[in-house]
Amino acid sequence: MSIEINNESDIPVDEVALQRLAAFALDTMHVHADADLAILLVDEGAMEQLHVQWMDEPGPTDVLSFPMDELRPGTEDAETPAGLLGDIVLCPQVAQGQAETAGHSTLDELLLLTAHGILHLLGFDHAEPDEEKEMFGIQRDILIGFAMQERRRAR
Fold first, then answer.
1. In this structure, are residues 65 and 88 in contact, taking their beta carbons and an 8 Å threshold?
2. Binding site residues for Zn(2+), as ranges?
3. pTM above 0.90, yes or no
């Protein structure tokens, strides 16, 4: 699995943790080992430009997802085909503010946003209540499973 992370923001980020979470999420969703994912971290100005260009909404946002090959989750018996999953763009400054409001670390917020972005790349959405329930449930399960894996790894 190729997970490329590029931090163009001025905020230091634990890129190794983001990469481990992304790998865990992709494995959980039965994405082919030869799938490619790129994660880009940008400042508020760059994120605002992307937000306006692609979503026609003002101001910076926390995460944007740009799917490429429209891969969907696999199953234990049949993982997704190999391909380009797509790009996730994160804004650490926006994540930092959200983390303070939520009462957790900026890294925890970036991990949540990475999981969220990956699910969008896999075709999940949260526009309708039933979609939101499904997507956020999977997102929660990924984050809990990852936290448990990290605790075991730290022992």
1. yes
2. 116, 120, 126
3. yes
